[in-house]
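W.,

You were right to be curious about this one. When I first looked at the sequence I had no strong expectations either way, so I just let the prediction run and decided to look at it fresh. Below is the sequence, 137 residues in total, followed by the output.
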Amino acid sequence: MNKKKKIETLTGETLVKKVKELENLSKEEKARACGYYTVTKSGVERVNMMKFLNALIDAEGIELDGKQNGNGRGGRSASYRISVQSNGNLLIGSAYTKQMGLQSGDEFEISLGRKHIHLRQLDREEGDLDEELEEAS
């Protein structure tokens, strides 16, 4: 089995310089050259474009959401992706509920689409939550 050593994942100014050096390559080739890929168990390389693009945005110091973490503490930021847990539950984390200003006890109506889940907050007269969720996706 021929194993290649994974390239170091570049960040910050090093990432920006490398991307500028590789201006003639496609974005997928740039991401791979900067270490933003994984190798599956079967040996297939998969480029992680989201991590690459997010690292570039961070390296350039661009703030897309216009919000700073005001409490000064670290923690997980919202990735806008969740997975079904092994017990079949779908957990929406506190990063999302805090961002939306939700409180303990807030209730929602759930409606299921073919491959979508829509939530509508009950007792909320202005701007249904389902519209806000659709905008985020």
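Here's what jumped out at me. The beta strands are 37-39, 45-47, 108-112, 117-121. And, maybe more interesting for your project: Residues 69-73 have pLDDT under 50 and may be disordered.

Coffee later to discuss?

I.
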